Recover the amino acids of this structure.
């Protein structure tokens, strides 16, 4: 595999951060715009979300379901190109906490594999597959 360039590393890291800020903030249109038209988000809910219309539902679900208190944090990012320098895979740990109650609590800890493609000079998410390492807490669960 070819070493990822500094420019692409910075762009991809920024995209992952924006992805998390937009989903936590409930910005459905902004979040969906980060994806390809046929993008697929799987593993973060009981059913996968495929395509922009379905993906638009995720931020509202996150914000409403946890009273605006769910927060995602990406860490230990590792990136590599795919079959060309217009394809990339970003591996990261995803720590998710709830802040709508005291004290804040761990919601889940997951491994994420995000596959991206460069389209017209911009990186877009093709898929993001989430594998929970700690079982997610149910909506409304306090312990």
């Amino acid at each position: 595999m070819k070493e990822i360039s500094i420019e692409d590393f910075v762009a991809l890291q920024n995209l992952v951060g924006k992805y998390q800020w937009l989903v936590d903030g409930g910005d459905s249109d902004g979040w969906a715009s980060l994806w390809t038209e046929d993008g697929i988000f799987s593993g973060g809910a009981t059913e996968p979300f495929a395509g922009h219309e379905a993906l638009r539902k995720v931020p509202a679900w996150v914000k409403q379901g946890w009273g605006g208190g769910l927060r995602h944090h990406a860490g230990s990012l590792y990136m590599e190109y795919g079959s060309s320098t217009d394809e990339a895979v970003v591996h990261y740990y995803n720590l998710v906490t709830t802040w709508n109650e005291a004290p804040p609590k761990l919601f889940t800890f997951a491994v994420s594999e995000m596959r991206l493609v460069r389209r017209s000079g911009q990186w877009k998410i093709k898929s993001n597959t989430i594998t929970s390492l700690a079982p997610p807490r149910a909506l409304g669960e306090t312990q």
User: Anything to note?
Assistant: The chain has a mean pLDDT of 90. Helices lie at 6-25, 28-32, 52-55, 57-65. The chain has one domain: 6-134.
